[in-house]
Amino acid sequence: QVQLVESGGGLVQAGDSLRLSCASSGRTSSTYAMGWFRQAPGKEREFVAASTSSTYYADSVKGRFTISRDNAKNTVYLQMNSLKPEDTAVYYCACAINWDMRTVRFRSRYDYWGRGTQVTVSS
Asked: What average pLDDT does range 68-84 have in this prediction?
């Protein structure tokens, strides 16, 4: 079992920055893929970014968001810059035990999920 707890969400204005954190505990491993997904009201949960030995980004956030991980602290981060109102969503951290580069963007690949943290970007 892996437990994931997100933090760092909040209400910001367009153009501002936020850094989300996801602390993991339990049966963690640096070999697991760690991902961030988001879900806006009325929409499906979508991939944002993932970290393995490489990093992966959705086109909508590439160049603005950066995922990083500190394996010693069992924490993964999502630095979000130049935020836009369309970035408003609940952001979820997730962990995939078995993954490959073709499926790391797939929600169904992830085994464990946090409860999410709300990010609201006002215009």
From this structure: 96
Beta-carbon contacts of 119 under 8 Å, excluding residues fewer than 6 positions away, are 9, 10, 12, 18, 20, 38, 80, 83, 87, 88, 89, 90, 91
Q: What would the mean pLDDT of 4-19 be, rounded to a whole number?
A: 98
- 100's CB contacts (< 8 A; 6+ apart) are none
Q: How is residue 54 annotated by DSSP?
A: S
Asked whether 4 and 113 are in contact (CB, 8 A), the reply is yes
Buried b (16+ CB within 10 A) or exposed e, 68-81: ebeeeebbbbbebe
| Res. 30: pLDDT tops 90 | no
